[in-house]
Design a protein that fits this description.
The structure is a single chain. Helices cover about 15% and strands about 30% of the residues. The chain is built from 5 helices and 21 strands. Strand 8 and strand 9 form a beta hairpin. The longest helix is centred in the last third of the chain and has 14 residues.
Length: about 325
């Protein structure tokens, strides 16, 4: 479960609330499906089916799922009340088994659990004291993660499993990448307060005049350009602050896919892993009001959509497109 990812919340002029993310990891998404889980679905709390307890979902949900267990690991999703959530890699900072509570839950199941039980961020906050995240491995690996949630109010909350328990950041910036923790990333933005989307005027230095190489060359000057988590956090915060909102859902979705481009990782640019490069394998945008899961992959750049059906009665799994769908004009 070695993955990166970048995520931010947004909204449209007509009040639609969105949550978008890149899904970055080595390899491919052969084990992934878009999952639609109905109300009443019996989910595991542990990866071991022989010892797990089970919880029934109160709300239906749809999202990206890693298959291979009886209960899929939901990495992001939206439920029938418009509550949205996503998990992102948090290596070196996640602490588990920090409390004694009534619900012991594998970190990979927290998205499905909270979306399945809660209708809003306020309800999540009420439920958190009953939850302990366990250090149980999945597929033989640890899963250090932290989380972002957003709902129809537009609030974005960051949730991090730290040594003292859950650190809850209400009314956050609505931006999340990976380690370090949210407080560090928030403070680090102070290094970039001079960055602007405006052209900088000519400067007079030692009796000489210096200007940028073009009319817009100095816009965004100072933004970090690498793919490390802090750099992606800064670029995404810059995009969220300055990007032009869409007027409606479709415009907003289209713009949000575009706004995630600065943190998209092409294959081959980020460190060779034993079997593959780290790369962006999927980009997803969720809408709270329509409860729609939009996504695209490098293999199929067309934006696809799965609409949550509140009356679904059985789990439904959708394969990801494996080939390009090109519109040929002649």
């Amino acid at each position: 479960m070695n993955f990166g990812c970048s995520c931010f919340s947004w909204e449209t002029d007509d009040g639609k609330h969105l949550l978008g993310r890149t899904y970055d990891q080595p390899g491919n998404l052969a084990a992934n499906r878009i999952a639609m889980l109905p109300s009443g679905f019996s989910m595991q709390t542990s990866t071991d089916p022989a010892t797990t307890t089970r919880v029934s979902l109160r709300h239906a949900l749809v999202g990206m799922a890693v298959m291979g267990l009886e209960t899929p690991i939901l990495v992001d999703g939206v439920n029938t009340h418009g509550l949205m959530g996503a998990l992102l890699h948090y290596p070196g900072y996640a602490f588990y088994d920090t409390r004694h509570t009534s619900v012991n839950l594998h970190p990979g199941f927290l998205i499905a659990y909270l979306l399945g039980q809660c209708a809003s961020i306020a309800e999540i906050v009420q439920l958190l004291p009953t939850i302990n995240l366990t250090n149980e491995k999945v597929f033989g690996q640890e899963m250090p993660v932290h989380y972002i949630f957003s709902d129809c109010t537009g609030e974005a909350m960051i949730l991090e499993p730290d040594a003292a328990g859950f650190s809850v950041h209400r009314h956050s910036l609505g931006v999340l990448t990976n380690s370090p923790n949210y407080d560090w990333q928030h403070t680090n933005l102070r290094n970039y307060i001079e960055v602007t989307n405006q052209h900088r005027p000519s400067q007079h230095i030692i009796n000489h005049t210096f200007c940028g190489f073009s009319e817009t060359a100095s816009s965004g000057f100072g933004l970090p350009g690498d793919y490390a988590s802090p750099a992606r956090f800064v670029r995404l915060a810059f995009c969220k602050h300055f990007a032009v909102r869409g007027h409606n859902e479709i415009e907003g979705i289209s713009k949000m896919f575009h706004n995630l481009a600065p943190v998209d990782i092409p294959e081959g640019l980020l460190g060779a892993h034993p079997n593959a490069y780290m790369q962006t394998l999927s980009t997803s945008v969720l809408c709270a009001e329509s409860q729609t899961y939009y996504f695209s992959t490098p293999e199929n750049r067309r934006i696809c959509a799965v609409h949550l059906k509140s009356n679904c009665t059985e789990p439904t799994y959708f394969d990801l497109p494996q080939s390009q769908d090109i519109c040929h004009f002649n």
